[in-house]
Amino acid sequence: MFKKILGLALVANMLTVALPALAANGSTACVGSAVSIREAAIDSAMTGFNQSVTTAYSARAVALQTAYGKNLGNGTLRTDIKVTWVAFTLAMQNARTAWRTARNSAWSGFRTAVKACKITTVPTDSGHSGSEVSGS
């Protein structure tokens, strides 16, 4: 997961490096390129989030099935259940944190890239960044 986040951060950094050259003619194509890169980063981040959530649910299911199949007594069962839910909660928190970090990085890189385009009259969709899935 860390590699995915690092990759997304690199994509966001590419926005700030690659797009100033595109802005030389001051066209809206520069903003369009920034949008494309941002959306690709967000799509990748959402794919990573979904994979992390699926993995967390699968691991929880296996751990609970194993715990209930042991027949080692109620004390051991309670402990195994608690450990399973703590691990699940932590996995979900990590997935949400990774998603938010990647999403915010994509939007931050986009805003920086649009500024580098030096076009002030082109409307952007930055005002809708709050509509992204919160990862909860």
Description:
By secondary structure, this protein is mostly helical. The chain has helices at residues 2-22, 28-69, 74-117. Helix 1 runs antiparallel to helix 2, helix 1 runs parallel beside helix 3 (74-117) and helix 2 runs antiparallel to helix 3. The longest helix is centred in the last third of the chain and has 44 residues, at 74-117. It is rod-shaped and about 70 Å long. It starts with a helix and ends in a 19-residue tail after the last helix.
Question: Which key terms come to mind for this protein?
Answer:
rod-shaped, mainly alpha, 136 residues
Summarize model confidence as the mean pLDDT: 81
- Please outline the major beta sheet: none
- N- and C-termini, Cα separation: 17 Å
* Portion in beta strands: under 5%
- Tell me the number of strands: 0
* Overall 3D form: rod-shaped
Are there runs of 5+ residues with pLDDT below 50, and where? 15-25
Output the helix-strand order.
HHH
* Number of helical stretches of at least 4 residues: 3
The level of helicity is over 70%
